[in-house]
User: What shape does this take?
Amino acid sequence: MNSLKYQWQICRAVAGVTYKEWSAYRTHSMVSIIVGPVYFMVQYFIWTAVYGDHSLLGGISLPQMIRYFGATALIGYLIMDFADWNLSMLVRTGKFLTFHLRPIHHRSFALFQKIGHRSLGFLFEFLPCLLIFIFIFGVDMRPASFPWTILSVLLAFMMNFYVNYTIGLTSFWLVQSNGIRSAFMLVSGIFSGALIPLDFFPHWLQVTQFFLPFQYIAYMPAMVFTGHYSLGGLELSIQQAVGMQAVAVFITFGFNELVRRLAMKQFTAVGS
Amino acid sequence: MKRYLEVFKQCMYSAIQAAAAYRMNFIISSLITLAGNILFPLVTLLIYRAGTSFPGWTLYEVLLIQAVFTMSSGLSSLIFGGVLWTTMSHIREGSFEVILLKPLNPLFFIVATTFSTDSIGLFLGGVALFIFSVIQAGAIPLLFWLQFIGLFIAGTAVLAGLSLMMAAMSFKWVGNSRISELADSVLNIGKYPLPIFPKAVQAVATMIIPVGMVGFLPASALLGRVQARDFIAVLPCLLFLAAGVWVYRHMIRLYEGVGG
Assistant: This one.
């Protein structure tokens, strides 16, 4: 109990400091207020043209599709993460050493930083864009189930963090992990469902997504938001989908811990 | 003029030499960019695979628009891609004076010294996709090719103008690494057939921020889909580039040298 209280105090302190630190650059976050709606507008017109006389595409109606893109954009603001870049920088410069001297696990520190950073994102990216989507584009942004959507977004938040942290850990072997980061971002951008719902992919690719982390980051929380999840011919209730997402997060955490332990054996503190 | 050409040639040579020094990084970066380009039209492919389409446009016509867009982006990025990041870095560190002290036009110096070899993959990816989709278009008359070249150059001028405007913005919006996202979001409109957008968006994308010229209009010229009045849009493109140069030079005069 005392340990939990202690962790909570550290979380509040680190998240609070990160929030204040990034508040100085809040206008950077506010770029999303222009960029998000412009991307959304383009998607809106693309899909309106593509649907034409079709009532359903890939089993999704046009209003559902618009809601889907609204949800993926907003969820993206809540779960955005650069733990990979940060960890890579710390390893490359040798500054990771300082975390061995602190009475806190670096992964926890990075997670608390992300909580602070995304709290700022909630205020300066998520909320303004949500209001723009509702009042300017007239999109119904009410989730099918508030509690399950919040839980799913929280799991996506953790999933994105653990995956990115694992990518960052590759720096212990590669030192410069830019290449692997770019490759991952490229694949993730496509298979997370942020560009197009995964229902449009060939059946075998949809099935493959159950065994990869990408769909649990954007597609699944967005589908939980819309209240209907199906992929690769498998239809799941919202509860089942969130349950599967929780299992995926747990497995990813285990994998991350394994890689972290191996990575620590590689650490030389020299940098490059 | 001869001196400027000589400097540019030397800078290109240095950039290629630098890329050769870290050739593994160069090869991997180029391959990733190339793969990114192959995957970029994936959304279009999946849309057509689902049995629907952009009204009035075949799959290969849309791919042609996206190929021209990628080629234009690659070409612009090769020459102007590094201007934003270099300017931003100098402004943040307060070291832009280093450039102002050179016996050359500062804008030219930055353009020349930031020749971006990383963008070769982007350009080649666009060329590959272009060849693939233009073959499907059948025989194209010489006149259409000439029209295409003219409009392609105008589209590249728009991208250059956008790069300069974004870089100019970094003089006041110090250290904001997300400035480029502003341009990227607007450029998204140029990747698809313009008629799918409302008239107001079409007008803006042709006359005010002429992103329609980056992919849509040059591809339409190749397909024989442009009308005489569409060529009027070349004028705003050139004005856009001129505005980019003017704004950048104006912002140099406002440079304070304090960093941020």
Summary: The longest helix of chain A spans residues 106-135.
